[in-house]
Design a protein that fits this description.
globular, 6-stranded parallel beta sheet, about 30% helix
């Protein structure tokens, strides 16, 4: 492993870029020189406040690049830096058409030896990993069905900023579509990435949807097929970005028991066939940066960047790859296409 690592954060002036810089700085066991690139008019003063340097040389080829721009810019920036030989971590894709570039991106990686890591942050949350382990170890038998509900009011995402001033109000990269992709990613890490969409209803029904033109409600039924030939897992999900009371709640039914997970309490409860509690799962790492809700605890972002760094610098196995991301974007497209009108 190199003694000194150069890291470029593209889009560092935004909230996610700043978060990824915080992640990199917490890895004190690694010598990481952080650079920033952005089109923000105040990028110099922001870079100074973050303690990073603006990239000022076209001759510098960063070891790693973190792309934290709006989603509709991801593909072009990814290709640019992969062609330079930099390994790329990219915030989660939410535009279904982006998956059609993955064949070319895979070929670029083959030619340059660079790695591409598409983000799926929530699956790196410690308690989500514990739930996945519980399911994968068969502690509730064969999972049969899950029901998931998520709500968070879009106005609460960036309280200091109008929802019309950033990408979540653009129908192409809207908040409802984004959360559909985000939630399917971690659910699939538990139940499988071979996703068949059975039915869906995608609509704009609140003042948020009316004022922006985005779909603010996604509700759908999917079946996750098992690669091992076991029965598939049927799942229902309801995601809205207008609910005034925020929540994320998951219920899983298996042949030998159930799981109930409430993100607000940050606790999962495992029940046996008699409905008795046999185990509870909790999470200690719940630091929340000022201005964010408990949905955005720092630990899962650290875990994800650490997995990216390990895969690039030490040859570790990345937990996110293009094939998994392709399946998510494919499902999002189908959810929208077959929606009941």
């Amino acid at each position: 492993m190199k003694d000194n690592i150069s890291a470029l954060v593209v889009g560092f002036c935004g909230s996610m870029g700043k978060r990824r810089i915080r992640c990199l700085k917490r890895f004190t066991d690694r010598k990481i020189k952080i650079y920033g690139e952005d089109i923000h008019p105040d990028k110099k003063s922001i870079a100074d406040s973050l303690g990073i340097d603006l990239i000022d040389s076209k001759d510098l080829i960063p070891d790693i690049v973190i792309i934290s721009t709006p989603p509709d810019m991801h593909v072009d920036i990814t290709k640019k830096y992969l062609k330079m030989g930099s390994s790329v971590f990219c915030e989660a894709s939410v535009v279904p058409e982006d998956r059609h570039h993955y064949k070319e991106i895979k070929e670029i990686c083959r030619e340059t030896g660079a790695k591409f890591f598409p983000s799926a942050t929530i699956q790196f949350k410690n308690i989500i990993k514990k739930i996945a382990d519980t399911v994968h170890k068969g502690e509730i038998g064969q999972p049969i069905f899950y029901d998931y509900k998520m709500a968070q009011n879009l106005h609460q995402w960036h309280p200091h900023q109008s929802i019309h001033d950033f990408y979540v109000s653009d129908p192409n990269t809207g908040a409802g579509r984004e959360m559909c992709a985000f939630e399917l990613a971690w659910l699939s890490s538990i139940f499988g990435h071979d996703i068949d969409v059975m039915s869906s209803c995608v609509k704009s029904i609140s003042e948020i949807g009316v004022s922006t033109g985005i779909d603010d409600l996604y509700t759908f039924v999917v079946n996750h097929s098992s690669a091992e030939g076991k029965p598939g897992v049927l799942g229902t999900s309801s995601i809205d970005v207008f609910g005034h009371k925020i929540y994320r709640f998951l219920r899983v039914a298996g042949t030998e028991g159930n799981i109930e997970f409430d993100w607000i309490s940050n606790q999962a409860t495992i029940f046996n066939k008699s409905g008795e509690v046999v185990k509870t799962l909790s999470e200690d790492q719940v630091e929340v940066h000022p201005g964010y809700t408990q949905f955005s605890a720092e630990g899962m972002y650290d875990n994800e960047i650490n997995n990216f760094l390990d895969s690039v610098l030490n040859g570790g196995e990345p937990e996110c790859d293009m094939q998994k991301d392709f399946s998510i974007l494919n499902a999002v497209e189908k959810i929208e296409k077959i929606s009941l009108k």
